[in-house]
């Protein structure tokens, strides 16, 4: 199945993956080289898991989960498989985020540092709650075959908008967190004097912004949208049929109405046949 502008898509995809991977590597270099490493002992080494897991899960993996439906070589895969991959990636990201939050609160409590006083913490915890809520609702409404089509059609635009809003807010929260950490860590050496750690970590922030911009561009191009599946009809246990569930992925093509159109045409043909048979019987 051909994609319009395939070379452009491939170039942006490779660029996004490269920049996202570099963001994770830069985060690891930051905590291992400048912040003394990783640990789980209530010290600053435990806190260092927070930026590593946040950038890896909340930024890099979430970005991949958002664009997974745009990969043209997956368009022949079943919609259910792709929805499962999409939800699975988001679940992995959520697990990493929860572990990173535990490391922060554990570190603060061990050193009697107040919790939830900064703007970064307010925005961060809010977006984590919204992310988990989005994941749970997405699984129950779009992945599991329980919700009616009317509910899916109603929720889909909100699911799309909230997914992009959460991703953008995550990037904002990460940037404020990086700045906050540098202000605390470089207070004695002077952040304003362009120390190597400050320059290096500022570069990390720019990489995260570029990664987010690439993900936003890929997911908002209509020509790179996964094609609709007009024949995706699932049989119910009672023998009736209904449209297959819509995907969890960010999809700007609205809810697919191809099946409803086909069903309407089939119903019209059936009515015409019934009228013809009635006319033939009356003539005889």
UniProtKB/TrEMBL annotation:
- The transmembrane residues are 12-32, 52-73, 85-105, 125-147, 159-179, 199-219
Signal peptide location:
none
Q: How does this protein lie in the membrane?
A: Multi-pass membrane protein
Domain named Cytochrome b561: residues: 15-220
- PROSITE patterns reported for this sequence: CYTOCHROME_B561 (PS50939)
Q: Give the span(s) annotated as Disordered.
A: 229-284
GO molecular function per UniProt: metal ion binding; transmembrane ascorbate ferrireductase activity
| GO-annotated cellular components | apical plasma membrane; lysosomal membrane
The UniProt record lists the EC number as 7.2.1.3
Q: Name one Pfam family in it.
A: Cytochrom_B561
Needed cofactors, names only, are: heme b
Which cell locations does it reside in?
Apical cell membrane
Keyword Endoplasmic reticulum recorded: no
| UniProt keyword Protease, yes or no | no
Catalytic reactions on record: Fe(3+)(out) + L-ascorbate(in) = monodehydro-L-ascorbate radical(in) + Fe(2+)(out) + H(+); monodehydro-L-ascorbate radical(out) + L-ascorbate(in) = monodehydro-L-ascorbate radical(in) + L-ascorbate(out); Cu(2+)(out) + L-ascorbate(in) = Cu(+)(out) + monodehydro-L-ascorbate radical(in) + H(+)
**Highest taxon, organism lineage:** Eukaryota
User: What keywords tag this UniProt record?
Assistant: Cell membrane, Electron transport, Heme, Iron, Membrane, Metal-binding, Oxidoreductase, Translocase, Transmembrane, Transmembrane helix, Transport
Record's compositionally biased regions (Polar residues): 254-263
Q: What is its main location?
A: membrane
How does the record describe its quaternary structure? Homodimer.
Quote the protein name from its UniProt record.
Plasma membrane ascorbate-dependent reductase CYBRD1
Highest lineage ranks of the organism? Eukaryota, Metazoa, Chordata, Craniata, Vertebrata
Gene name for this UniProt entry: DCAF17
């Amino acid at each position: 199945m051909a994609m319009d502008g395939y070379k452009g898509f491939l170039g942006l995809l490779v660029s996004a993956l490269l920049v996202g991977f570099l963001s994770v590597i830069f985060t690891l270099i930051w905590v291992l080289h400048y912040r003394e490493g990783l640990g789980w002992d209530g010290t600053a080494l435990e806190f260092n898991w927070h930026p590593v897991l946040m950038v890896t899960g909340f930024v890099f993996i979430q970005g991949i989960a958002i664009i997974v439906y745009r990969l043209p070589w997956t368009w022949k895969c079943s919609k259910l498989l792709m929805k499962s991959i999409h939800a699975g990636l988001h679940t992995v990201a959520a697990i990493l985020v929860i572990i990173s939050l535990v490391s922060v609160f554990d570190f603060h409590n061990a050193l009697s540092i107040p919790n939830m006083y900064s703007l970064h913490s307010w925005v961060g915890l809010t977006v984590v709650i919204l992310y988990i809520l989005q994941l749970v609702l997405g699984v129950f409404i779009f992945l599991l075959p329980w919700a009616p089509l009317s509910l899916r059609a109603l929720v889909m635009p909100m699911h799309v908008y909230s997914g992009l809003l959460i991703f953008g807010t995550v990037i904002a929260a990460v940037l404020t967190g990086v700045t906050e950490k540098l202000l605390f860590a470089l207070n004695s050496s002077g952040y304003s004097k362009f120390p190597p750690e400050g320059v290096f970590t500022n570069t990390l922030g720019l990489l995260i912004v570029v990664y987010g911009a690439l993900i936003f561009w890929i997911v908002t191009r209509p020509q790179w949208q996964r094609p609709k599946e007009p024949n995706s009809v699932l049989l119910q246990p009672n023998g009736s049929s209904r449209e297959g569930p819509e995907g969890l992925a960010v999809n700007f093509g609205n809810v697919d109405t191809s099946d409803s159109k086909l069903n309407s045409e089939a119903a019209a043909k059936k009515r015409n046949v019934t009228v013809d048979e009635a006319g033939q019987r009356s003539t005889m």
